[in-house]
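Fill in residues.
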């Protein structure tokens, strides 16, 4: 960092905004977070969530960002207050399905094939691993506490234009997620509707995820007191109203894979809109004499990319400072 320390406004308090603000604040930058919704009201809280890399565009960068996040999550798993733990995972897939996800498999440290006897019926292939699993309400609270300790405030301040932010700070970090569509006029970003069913945890520890190119799949993520079951992605759907047929399908499929879930109490149905984009955008844009660092368009991979993208934001902010 140079001799001049400029104030920074970070727009958005989801996982990307909080992590970017935290990385900047812990590097000594004076940071304010402006947001229309508090962390526990953002789309991030609805995530499953598990770290698992996928080959998103730009592939070389997203895989590197994912690896950087893995290192951080493995450290965070040592802290019982973080909401992060290293969990046994079983992923299943159809070996005839051309999965772009497989291009990130080399980053998974202990990925190993599952035997046929270890697979649920109907699945032809699978793999075991130990992956960071993130209990999002607890994790977002952890990030918020750590951010507060670093001297950064989260302010309810909806932002309607970048000009509004650059009036206050010469450096703005845009982590608006789906809100970037209107904030910066990026029509390439679209909603992808997601829906999860949350059940009381009947004693599960291993997470399960079906890897598929289809828009519906089966997954469940067991946290200490709850299990988040999914999943679905409906591109272009802005309505966040839960779809009963989707809930029925999720529960039916999860019960079939793990019968103990059939005895568990249903706690709630949660929905959200993933910020889907053809490529993740982390780059600098000059706005007059001010600078904007964009960090959005992560789709369903915001958690997996969060620390890597946040460190990239710090590098871009520091480049000319």
């Amino acid at each position: 960092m140079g001799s001049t320390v400029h104030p920074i406004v970070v727009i958005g308090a989801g996982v990307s905004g909080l992590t970017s603000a935290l990385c900047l604040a812990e590097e000594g930058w004076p940071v304010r977070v402006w947001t229309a919704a508090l962390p526990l009201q953002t789309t991030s809280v609805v995530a499953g969530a598990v770290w698992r890399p996928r080959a998103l565009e730009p592939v070389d960068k997203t895989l590197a960002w994912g690896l950087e996040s893995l290192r951080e999550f493995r450290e965070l798993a040592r802290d019982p207050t973080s909401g992060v733990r290293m969990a046994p995972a079983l992923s299943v897939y159809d070996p005839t399905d051309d999965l772009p996800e497989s291009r990130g498999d080399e980053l998974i440290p202990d990925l190993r094939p599952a035997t046929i006897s270890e697979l649920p019926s109907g699945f032809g292939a699978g793999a075991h691993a130990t992956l960071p699993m993130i209990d999002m309400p607890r994790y977002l609270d952890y990030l918020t506490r750590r951010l507060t300790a670093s001297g950064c405030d989260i302010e309810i301040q909806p932002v309607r234009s970048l000009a509004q932010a650059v009036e206050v700070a010469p450096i703005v970090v845009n982590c608006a997620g789906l809100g970037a569509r209107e904030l910066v006029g990026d029509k390439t970003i679209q909603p992808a509707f997601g829906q999860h069913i949350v059940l009381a945890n009947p004693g599960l520890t291993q997470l399960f995820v079906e890897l598929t190119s289809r828009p519906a799949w089966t997954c469940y993520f067991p946290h200490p007191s709850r299990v988040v079951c999914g999943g679905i992605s409906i591109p272009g759907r802005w309505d966040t109203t839960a779809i009963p047929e989707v809930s029925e399908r999720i529960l039916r499929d999860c019960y079939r894979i793990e019968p103990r879930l059939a005895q568990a109490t249903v706690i709630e149905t949660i929905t959200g809109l993933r910020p889907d984009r053809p490529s993740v955008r982390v780059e600098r844009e000059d706005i007059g004499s001010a600078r904007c660092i964009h960090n959005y368009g992560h789709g369903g991979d915001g958690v997996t990319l969060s620390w890597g993208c946040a460190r990239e934001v710090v590098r871009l902010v520091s480049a000319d400072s």
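Helices lie at 15-26, 59-76, 136-149, 162-166, 180-183, 244-257, 302-318.
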